[in-house]
Specification:
about 180 residues; single chain; two-stranded antiparallel sheet; about 0% strand; mainly alpha
Length: about 180
């Protein structure tokens, strides 16, 4: 203790400054601990791993009832006669704005529609839920995807459009893209 008296004194002074800083920002720490779990969960909800992107949808809640929004703003800005100005605003704007109520901006896209998982990321709990499931087909061993019967096998009811087509890569892109007998 006597050998390290000066080092202990310096350490306690530094510890005091750190603890005073923590006490001084206690409200900020409380706010962070209060908001952080919800903010992280919101981030998890808008992250799409299939696209590697963050998506979301802006909701303009004030425009679901624009008369209340606009006339409330006028009423808040009015000092004298606030009630009267809000009533006049509603009286004059109601016929104009009543058909312009919207929950989302009328733009031609919906970020809600999109792939949220790749097909290889989906695990089916029952075989009959798989898109390639064939009723009566033998069950595949675990770990292997189920496949339909071989073309031309007995009991095969493949439609002509489902018949396999041969391609010729030696002919270039037309040999890969144009079916035999097709094109000009």
């Amino acid at each position: 203790m006597t050998d390290n008296r000066e080092a202990l004194g310096t350490l306690s002074e530094k510890l005091t400054s750190v603890s005073q800083m923590l006490v001084g920002s206690l409200d900020d720490i409380e706010q962070t601990l209060h908001v952080l779990p919800n903010a992280l969960q919101n981030f998890v909800n808008i992250y799409e791993p299939a696209h590697g992107s963050i998506t979301g949808l802006l909701a303009f809640n004030n425009f679901s009832n624009p008369i209340t929004f606009l006339c409330g703003a006028i009423q808040a800005a009015s000092r004298l006669g606030a009630e009267q100005s809000a009533k006049l605003c509603a009286q004059y704007l109601a016929p104009i704005v009543k058909n312009r109520q919207l929950n989302f901006p009328p733009i031609g896209l919906s970020p809600l529609v999109g792939a949220t998982a790749r097909p290889n990321e989906v695990t089916y709990s029952e075989d009959w839920m798989r898109p390639d499931f064939q009723p009566g087909a033998p069950k595949p061993p675990d770990g292997e995807p189920s496949a339909g019967p071989e073309p031309g096998a007995p009991g095969d009811t493949a439609l002509p459009a489902e018949a396999p087509l041969s391609t010729d890569p030696a002919q270039g892109l037309p040999g890969l893209m144009v079916p035999p007998g097709g094109g000009s």
